[in-house]
Q: What sequence folds into this?
């Protein structure tokens, strides 16, 4: 995982990776969409989508910039690349733009990668203060391909790295509770985060097993088991359905049967409870790697 200084932190969402100032916070997330804030004011907005068919720069530029903008939004001006902004790969088409309203302005880029066919619009809000000074460094960190060194997801106060081809299929961010679901063929991984941990543990008799049971994380087959102690928490493992049938296949073909696992642990330093559930995971080394990568930013 890429290391970050105290002044910066990773942001990763919808296949886009950035390094952003540590003071910037996640404001809102959607499918292919993110809004970052600084002191409750918008500072960066991102929209990304995979383009099917022929890419038309002008048409897709209008579509991406029109989304979410009101009829009274100020007009956009296409501009040259501002001085100090980084150059991008020759495989990347780039169109800078700017706009100015009565009280706030903005500038940004529409980027289209010919290799992955992903179009990404990034715009920075100009409130007339120092925030725009971070633009060159943020843009220089832009990645729209999996880097292998950065997290798959890094939003709010959590980050995790999943193996290749795991796709985010469902997510929910509620006050005190996050849930993210990833799938890859028959495999599934779910991440949870609860806070404040001390309040939740107090309601659950100060046991993580009760937290797991109360939130429906365990199947009937192991719901009465106490779980195996691991560092800071508990872990359960159980076979997938049809285990015996696949076990016969294991001896015939030397392919281990997929299994299920749940790990839940308490991060006392950040007052968080984290949990990972793997379903039909081919190897528990994969599950272990995901758990190890999952933590607080």
A:
């Amino acid at each position: 995982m890429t290391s970050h200084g105290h002044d910066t932190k990773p942001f990763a969402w919808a296949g886009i990776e950035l390094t952003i100032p540590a003071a910037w916070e996640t404001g809102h997330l959607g499918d292919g969409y993110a809004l970052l804030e600084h002191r409750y004011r918008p500072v960066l907005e991102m929209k990304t989508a995979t383009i099917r068919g022929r890419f038309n720069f002008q048409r897709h530029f209008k579509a991406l910039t029109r989304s979410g903008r009101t009829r009274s939004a100020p007009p956009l001006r296409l501009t040259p690349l501002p001085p100090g902004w980084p150059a991008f790969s020759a495989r990347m088409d780039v169109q800078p733009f700017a706009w100015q309203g009565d009280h706030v302005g903005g500038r940004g880029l529409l980027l289209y990668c010919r290799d992955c066919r992903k179009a990404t619009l990034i715009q920075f809000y100009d409130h007339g203060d120092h925030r725009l000074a971070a633009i060159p460094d943020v843009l220089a960190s832009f990645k729209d391909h999996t880097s292998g060194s950065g997290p798959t997801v890094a939003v709010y106060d959590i980050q995790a790295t999943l193996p290749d081809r795991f796709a985010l299929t469902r997510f929910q961010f509620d006050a005190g509770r996050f849930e993210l679901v990833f799938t890859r063929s028959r495999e599934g991984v779910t991440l949870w985060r609860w806070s404040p941990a001390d309040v939740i543990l107090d309601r659950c008799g100060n046991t993580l097993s009760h937290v797991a049971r109360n939130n429906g994380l365990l199947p009937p087959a192991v719901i009465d088991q106490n779980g195996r102690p691991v560092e800071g928490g508990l872990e359960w493992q159980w076979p997938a359905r049809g285990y015996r049938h696949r076990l016969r296949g294991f001896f015939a073909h030397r392919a281990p049967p997929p299994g299920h696992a749940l790990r839940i642990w308490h991060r006392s330093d950040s007052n968080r409870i984290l949990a990972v559930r793997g379903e039909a995971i081919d190897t528990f080394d994969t599950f272990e790697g995901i758990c190890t990568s999952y933590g607080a930013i």
Notes: Residues 243-253 form the longest helix (11 residues). DSSP finds six helices and 19 strands in the chain. The domain at 8-140 is CATH 3.40.1000.10 (Protein Transport Mog1p; Chain A).
